[in-house]
Amino acid sequence: MRVTFLGTGAAMPTGRRAQTGLLVESSDDRVLVDCGSGVLNALARTDAGYEDVSTVLLTHHHLDHVADLLPLMKARWLAGEEHLEVVGPQGTKELLDGLLSVHEYMDGRIDLRVREIGPESYSLARFSVDATETRHSMYCLAYRFTHESGAEGESTEDRDGDPPTFTFGADSEAFEGLANFADGSAVLAHDCSFPDEVDVSNHPTPSQLGETLADSGAEFGRVYLTHLYPHTEGRHEEMLESVGERYDGDVRFARDGLTVEIE
User: Fold this and answer.
1) Cα-based torsion angle of the residue sequence 124, 115, 138, 105 in order, rounded to the nearest 10 degrees
2) Which of 40, 47, 84, 249 has the fewest CB within 10 Å, making it most exposed?
């Protein structure tokens, strides 16, 4: 499995980070997770491009996670692609209906399929996906991915060891339930929007995240910090030190364009 961070920023632009978006791939199976402003441009720079990504999975409906959704739809239509599936929490259909009511000329241009999901397990583009609710100002889902087949179509049940797992914590405060949901993941991408001195809810600071990860007892191969506001610029070293004072795992900052191989 391969994860590319297309956008690691948040609602306030930094000039160096697009808003939230990740591309999860295994062989020719691909899922775009969230589609904030700037993500379409970043997607166009990948080998897959927007032409080869026909499935979008939304964590929630805040603007910095959906702003490029309709531009993606238009780009695929102009490229001659005929389908797009958008999966997300309750209200996703209403979101798409609202966007198409504003831009009526896009209605019917492609075969748009919308599926609404909750905290459950399901199959998506040959990925097995588990979902759980986060703690955010809007209903939001975190997702845990494993791929349903190995090389040459081999079932993961026939392979030695556990299949590689990636968890995207989406927008959320740090809490043990989310850490335990991601337990055993080779890679966890977790919100860490602000440095410690910022008094914030709905997002964690480094000390809050480090304490939660340590107290949970959950284990991860690597943790990437993402959803970064401008307040974090120039503060990465001290933020990592703050996490490290409480949690001794491998923690790094994500950046736009970073691709992580998960084996």
Assistant:
1) 120
2) 47
Closest CA to 169 of 126, 201, 202: 202
Distance CA(98)–CA(93), nearest Å, equals 8
Report the distance separating Cα 62 and Cα 53, nearest Å: 22
Q: Phi, psi (5° rounding) for residue 151?
A: -60, 140
- 155-202 pLDDT, tens digit per residue, is 444 445 578 899 999 999 999 999 999 999 999 999 999 999 999 999
Residue 168 CA to residue 189 CA, distance in Å, equals 5
Q: Is 199 exposed, middle or buried (0-12, 13-18, 19+ CB in 10 A)?
A: exposed
Q: Which amino acid is at 20?
A: T
Low-confidence ranges of the chain (pLDDT < 50): 151-159
DSSP element (H, E) containing 69: helix 69-78
Active site residues: 64
